Amino acid sequence: DGGITQSPKYLFRKEGQNVTLSCEQNLNHDAMYWYRQDPGQGLRLIYYSQIVNDFQKGDIAEGYSVSREKKESFPLTVTSAQKNPTAFYLCASSTLDSPLHFGNGTRLTVT
Amino acid sequence: GENVEQHPSTLSVQEGDSAVIKCTYSDSASNYFPWYKQELGKRPQLIIDIRSNVGEKKDQRIAVTLNKTAKHFSLHITETQPEDSAVYFCAASIQGNNDMRFGAGTRLTVKP
Fold it and tell me: CB within 8 A of B60, min separation 6: which ones?
């Protein structure tokens, strides 16, 4: 189903390489979010953006970077500085007062 | 900051039985409590939410109760079905999605 699209579904990279995860939404939502999900843990917020050209760090921003040049797009770059990048990454969007709407996620494996 | 604890981490029930998942939160200022269901390989989806001005909310077989004094809230699923099998996450927030904190999740298995 549509709404918020993450690509690719699976991503493999070598250690030391930067990698960018895509997130696009056509819901006209102002706010977008990136979460990291690890086995046995809840979702942890990496970055969020409430408006174009503005974004804020979440709880675990170290080793990650984002941009918000367009309302529809919120790409996440996992840099080589992220010490444990292998994880499942979820993008979400919302209006400021509505529940989160999630994408299907990208599973990143770094070896 | 807010801390959300969720129990149990795994729960197995027979089809038709009830399932209860409990969460506690630390910040008394939290005022919004959603529950998300995540089926294997799929996105988390909101199934029910409650705000701090009510004590209970029900939607067909799903209900959520909130005890503000004790700072805990629970998800109740009645007449469970195999398709209820999934991971369920609770969450709490004060100001909205920007400070949402999630529990670690409960893997519910409904045996036919």
Answer: none
